[in-house]
Amino acid sequence: MASITPLSQSQPLYEKPQFTLLKTHQNQFYAIPFSRFTQSSKLSLKKSRMVVVSATTAAEKSNKRYPGEAKGFVEEMRFVAMKLHTRDQSKEGEKEPEGQPMAKWEPSVEGYLRFLVDSKLVYDTLEKIMEKAPFPEYAEFRNTGLERSESLAKDLEWFRQQGYAIPEPSTPGLNYARYLEDLSEKDPQAFICHFYNTYFAHSAGGRMIGRKVAEKILNKKELEFYKWDGDLSQLLQNVREKLNKVAENWTREEKNHCLEETEKSFKFSGEILRLILS
Fold first, then answer.
1. Which pairs count as long-range contacts for 177-185, CB under 8 Å and 24+ apart, including other chains?
2. What is the pLDDT of residues 46-102, one digit of tens each?
3. Adjacent-strand bridge partners of 22
């Protein structure tokens, strides 16, 4: 017959704990304070809830959508780049303007030549890196139709024929070219960010700058730098597709690393752009 362990003789009558019965293999029952049982249950429940919350948080993080992600990684890069524009440059811009707005620029031919020379150095560097292809994916971006080196060489020759002295590359261009060479050898995601921003920015805002400068100092002459063989929109779309395809093999962390390089790309290109006003 089952038995219950007796209470201690010295235990006060109104302080006796509640008991629950656990059966042993010998058909005996031993008293265990019910409070211990409930505390153990609560602890297990708490741990279970912690596991569920942790798993839910991880799932939410993995399912997080980045701006533009649904359209492909190029759209993510575009979104980040547009945020670094000022409001007068783009309705998506969030950056505070620095210096005079473009409408008030007073460029000089000498300053514009310095800009063109340093730009050519950067494009020379990018195009040589793609030919060398220290990482296989770089080879995807050879002969895209967006290349600018040859066009810039023609423009500089035109200026020479007009009697202008062509300067040597200056510090902004030299610094950027060295940075790109070093980056291309060790950090393909960050390098691709610079490739994208250099070529795509020139096809948009770069053309607008070219027109404004031509109106002020070149009697509206359109330089070869701002011309492309074929349909520019299709050339850009072809490169978008290649960029998206390359990025499909990147982890989310690698994609974020690429996006984080955008601000540095703007810094280098902005230093070269400001040569127009020098």
1. 177/121, 177/122, 177/124, 177/125, 179/268, 180/122, 180/125, 180/126, 180/129, 181/125, 181/129, 184/129, 184/134, 184/135, 184/138, 185/134
2. 444 444 444 444 444 456 778 888 899 999 999 999 999 765 554 555 566 667 776
3. 30
